[in-house]
Amino acid sequence: MAAFLAVAILAAISHSNPTNANSVSFAAEYRHPPNGVCVDYTVKQEITSTNYIWALEKFKSNFDTIDFITDIARKDSKTAFHPVRSNTKNETKTYEVSATFCSPKKATAGKVNTVLLATHGLGYDRRYWASSWKPEDYSFADFALDKGYSVFFYDRLGVGKSETVSGYENQGSIQVALLERLVELVRAGRYTGAIGKPKNIVLVGHSFGSFMSAALINDQPKLVDGVVLTGIAYPNATDLAGPDSAWSLETFAARIARFQDKKWSKLDTGYLNFADIYSHVNGFFKAPNYDMPTVEYAQAIAQPFAALEFVSLQLFKLDSPTFRGPVMVTAGENDLLLCGGECKSTFSSGVAEQAFKGAKDLNLYVHPGAGHGVNFGFNATVFYGKITEFLDKNF
Ligand SMILES: *[C@@H]1O[C@H](CO)[C@@H](O)[C@H](O)[C@H]1NC(C)=O
Ligand SMILES: *[C@@H]1O[C@H](CO)[C@@H](O)[C@H](O)[C@H]1NC(C)=O
Ligand SMILES: CC(=O)N[C@H]1CO[C@H](CO)[C@@H](O)[C@@H]1O
């Protein structure tokens, strides 16, 4: 076993065979930041949401999957492609999500009562926020705890240790309703240990998690005290997610997860995964701003996403002109998925200013050299520093 591991680590270091090295070279277990007092929770809640109904045949093969991706990427897909029915249905169901709450061991007066409630994006689970690979360079949770903030982070429905539901049912509306409930429970001090009821709750998101956080404050502008939206951009005033968002799925080269690896056998064919480490890098990293071992770690912890989740992303309302708290909108300079590979011009379009025109403090920041998955690129801690600087100013 030890020899096997050593070989795998060597393979990772020599870059000779990145995909084979994944499964053994990195501990997959979830890690508690040592500078935090951390507790894991299973949150089981009944929620009601207005849901879209999948209108296509379920995928039988990857040919069906790529045809779906092709249709989404069509320039006229918004009018020509109908993956969901025109009617929605209201559903009440109980779901279970797995979460971690950490408060800083070394508490700074005031800050410990600000809880950063973090929602990861598609392709990952909550380990996006708490890398066990070089945490000093990549773990947002470690960094935020070090600066005195409390952090609540969870696996979105369908990934990691949260409940598995069909990839043709799991979608944005359910997850936003769950996020809203998590905010209410954290607000009530349910999962916050000794700190009790927090003074402030700040939503922190990455990508799909940012879309969800934005959709939640669109619906409930008074629910939280601030938002930090990472891996998101506001490119277009009439189409806030941007016309590019439809073809961005092409970069995933998404394939049916259960046909890739038996570790995904509990997922139905509605769950899609990066085709390989190269498509993962295509969407989330930008050379020369990353190193191989970090990409291999990211690939080892990658999680499939639901086809309907991606579709529902395009149905989120992303502006919140009546939100009065501070808002940070930030992405990597070379984010391909949200900015078409160049974020400076996107961020100077003036669209975010309109989307959050009631914000007390709107901070727009483009992180130099990074791709979409900023947390696993070089200088992630510089990026985290910008976030906590923004928080320090406002809380
Ligand atoms: C679903 O719920 C929404 C919000 O409560 C309501 O406005 C709508 O009429 C409901 N739709 C159906 C079909 O019951
Ligand atoms: C914004 O999106 C609309 C609708 O997709 C498109 O017609 C328009 O050209 C886009 N504007 C910019 C500046 O890209
Ligand atoms: C601004 C900054 O911190 N840049 C650093 C980003 O990471 C690379 C690689 O570690 C360094 O060389 C830069 O100095």
UniProtKB/TrEMBL annotation:
Domain of life, per lineage: Eukaryota
GO molecular function (one): hydrolase activity
Every AB hydrolase-1 domain range: 116-376
N-terminal signal peptide: 1-21
Entry keyword annotation includes Hydrolase: yes
SUPFAM superfamilies attached to this UniProt entry: alpha/beta-Hydrolases (SSF53474)
Pfam family, one: Abhydrolase_6
Keywords: Hydrolase, Signal
Protein name per UniProt: Alpha/beta-hydrolase
Species of provenance: Lophium mytilinum
